[in-house]
């Protein structure tokens, strides 16, 4: 159950953030996605000189998990900010609209999205709270 592993999930996101490639915005984001079986996949944002083709940390984490064959997820933690290297960020980083829609493809409305400033300071929202009435073809 993700609730017993929130600290681990947040520290994985903090760890992933260290690998952010963000020379243009200097905004470093890390995400950690937990599968229903308990595995954790990390993602970091990766920018590009052709700005729009950069990828967010959340979708990066999903791509890693999906590429490994995973399809069922229990929670995601996200940390982001301009701070260079400390583990306590000044604000919460909320997933962009594109990432919210990406999450909605694979997760139910009650999927927990943990926004963290540090291991001890976090807020949990559901996917439906962040993207009500998500588009689905099914
Ligand atoms: N970014 C993410 O990685 N996740 C979000 O939810 C919001 C934005 C990245 C994209 C870009 O590399 C940088 O943050 C500034 O927008």
Question: How are the SSEs placed, and which strands pair?
Answer:
Elements: H1 6-17, E1 28-35, E2 40-44, H2 57-67, E3 73-81, H3 97-106, E4 112-116, E5 122-126, H4 127-130
Parallel strand pairs: 3-4
Antiparallel strand pairs: 1-2, 1-3, 4-5
Bound molecules: tetrahydrodeoxyuridine.
Tetrahydrodeoxyuridine binds at residues 22, 25, 27, 29, 45, 47, 54, 56-58, 80, 93, 95-96, 99.
Q: Provide the CATH top-level class.
A: Alpha Beta
Number of helices: 4
Strand content: 15-25%
| Radius of gyration, CA atoms, in whole angstroms | 14 Å
Strand order of the largest sheet: 2-1-3-4-5
- Named CATH architecture: 3-Layer(aba) Sandwich
**Largest sheet report:** 5 strands, mixed
- Structural class of the helix and strand makeup? alpha+beta
Short description:
With 138 residues, the chain is α+β, with helices and mostly antiparallel strands. It has helices at 6-17, 57-67, 97-106, 127-130, and strands spanning 28-35, 40-44, 73-81, 112-116, 122-126.
Report on the structure:
With 138 residues, the protein is an alpha+beta fold. The chain has a single domain (3-130), classed as Cytidine Deaminase, domain 2 (3-Layer(aba) Sandwich). Helix content is 27%, strand content 23%. It has helices at residues 6-17, 57-67, 97-106, 127-130, and strands at 28-35, 40-44, 73-81, 112-116, 122-126. It has a five-stranded mixed beta sheet. Helix 3 (97-106) links the parallel strand 3 and strand 4. It is globular. The site of tetrahydrodeoxyuridine has 15 residues, from helix 2.
């Amino acid at each position: 159950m993700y609730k017993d592993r929130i600290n681990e999930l947040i520290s994985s996101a903090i760890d992933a953030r260290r690998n952010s490639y963000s020379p243009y915005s200097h905004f470093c984001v890390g995400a950690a996605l937990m599968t229903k079986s308990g595995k954790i996949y990390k993602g970091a944002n990766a920018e590009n000189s052709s700005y729009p083709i950069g990828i967010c940390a959340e979708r990066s984490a999903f791509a890693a998990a999906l590429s490994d064959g995973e399809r069922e997820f229990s929670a995601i933690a996200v940390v982001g900010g301009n701070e260079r290297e400390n583990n306590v960020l000044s604000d919460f980083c909320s997933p962009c609209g594109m990432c919210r829609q990406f999450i909605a493809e694979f997760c139910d409305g009650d999927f927990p999205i943990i926004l963290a400033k540090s291991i001890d300071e976090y807020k949990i929202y559901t996917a439906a709270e962040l993207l009500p009435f998500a588009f689905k073809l099914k």
